[in-house]
Each structure stands twice: as C-alpha cells, then as structure tokens.
Design brief:
alpha+beta; OB fold (Dihydrolipoamide Acetyltransferase, E2P); 5 helices
C-alpha cells in the first residue's frame, strides 16, 4: 500500500478528546489493548477535511481486493463504514463537537507525542483530553467477520497548545487555588 496517499497530518487546531496515548487500554468487551484518540476537526478547516476525504478514497482504491474478500463484488465507498463523522449529526447536543468533524484513531503501537518544538513529552500531566495540536493518521481497509470499511490508524501527536479540559475533571491546582489557609482547620 502506498502509505503517503493514505497518510494525513491534521491542521493545527485539532482538539484531542478521549486522549489515551500513555498506556494502551482494552476496548469494552475485550480485545487487544490500544492507544486511541478522538480527533475533533473544526468544519472551518476545509484543507484537513479534504485531505482526509482524499486519503479515505485512496485507502478504498488500494484495498479493493481486501474489501471484496469472498464476495462477488466490491461494495461502493458510500456503502461501507468510514471514519470521518459529522459532530453536528452524530454528537447532537455536545458543544465540543458542534461545527466539527471527528475521527476516532487508534493503534496497538505507542504513538510518539511531541511539543511545538518537536521535543518528546514525557510528563503525562501535559497529555489530557482537550489539548490542541496536530495528529499524524493513516487510513486502511478492514474486512473482518462480515464487517467491511475503512479505519483510521494513529501514528503520532504534536501538542501545540493547552485547551479546555474535557470530561469534567478538574486539576488539583485549580481546585485548591485561592483558598485561605487561616482559621478553618477543623483539627485545632
């Protein structure tokens, strides 16, 4: 497979949700543990969206024999599952996905994670759902147990900025900021 035609680097304003890049997690119901992320791409980033659509088509074209499998024909691209999803339709009511496309990407291999200067990030506290940056992803065909489609693999992530933490969890630094350590000691 020509990996350059199925590989995409997202735009710099991609929000990383459900970020799981430090330790692989087994999917619900079991299976091989994987690293994963949901990439939220603003609809205004038409360049990235077009690159993704082109890469999906390239994966489809290159993977037709696998899509066909033991069937008589290759299903049409419109008839198979593809990873690019519309946040306004598929995540109605979720403000994080409003006016955005999203793609769930995963890998059994740990992705590289770097900062804006391409220096590896080892501090796990820097990696949370809500960071903003770019992702290197690739698209490939699958045909397993009657399920056929195109999936998205996660290669690497570049964190460019901190963003609003998603998932409702606050940081300890924020919870205890500005508290007066005066007379409210209940042990005295």
């Amino acid at each position: 497979m020509n990996s350059t035609s199925t590989k995409v680097i997202t735009g710099r304003n991609t929000v990383m949700s459900y970020l799981n890049v430090t330790e692989p997690k087994a999917p619900i119901g079991g299976g091989t543990p994987k690293y994963s992320v949901s990439l939220i791409i603003p609809k205004s980033d038409t360049v990235t969206v077009e690159k993704i659509k082109t890469a999906i088509k390239a994966a489809y074209d290159e993977g037709q024999s696998r899509l066909k499998g033991s069937s008589r024909s290759v299903p049409a691209l419109e008839d198979i599952k593809t990873p690019l999803r519309d946040g306004d339709r598929d995540r109605k009511g979720d403000p994080v996905y409003k006016d955005a496309w999203f793609i769930n990407a995963n890998s059994t291999t740990k992705p590289g994670v770097v900062d804006a200067d391409r220096i590896p990030i080892f501090d796990e506290s820097e990696l949370y759902s809500g960071i903003i940056g770019r992702a290197s992803i690739n698209f490939y065909v699958y045909n397993s147990n009657g399920n056929r489609g195109i999936a998205c693999g996660l290669n690497n992530i570049q964190k460019l900025a901190d963003g609003t933490r998603l998932g409702g969890r606050s940081r300890a630094e924020d919870d205890f900021a500005g508290l007066d350590d005066g007379d409210d000691d209940f042990l005295s």
